[in-house]
């Protein structure tokens, strides 16, 4: 094997190592991006669940307020009828 052949072989090996390094870096970056996406999705899901719970509480309070208004209106009508 001549010097040029050994140099060419080393260059090929270096290119292979470089290519593998880029591939592994891409995979690592992809994995991190995926993890970030999962975290963002979980955070949004938690936020939506919290909003849903607040809406349920407001709905329950709304029904309670309507019931109280109806009761008070009924009492007021009874008072007016007695006059």
Question: Can you put this structure into words, describing what you see?
Answer:
The termini are far apart. Helix content is 96%, strand content 0%. The protein has one helix at residues 3-82. The chain contains one helix and no strands. The longest helix has 80 residues, at 3-82. By secondary structure, it is mainly α.
What portion of residues belong to β-strands? under 5%
What number is the mean pLDDT?
88
Q: What form results from the Cα inertia axes?
A: rod-shaped
Radius of gyration: 36 Å
* Main sheet record: none
> What is the H/E string?
H
**Oligomer, anyone?**
single chain
**SS field, number of helical segments:** 1
Instruction: Give the N-terminus to C-terminus distance in angstroms.
Output: 120 Å
Low-pLDDT windows of residues: none
Range of helix content: over 70%
By DSSP, the count of extended strands is 0
Backbone structural class: mainly alpha
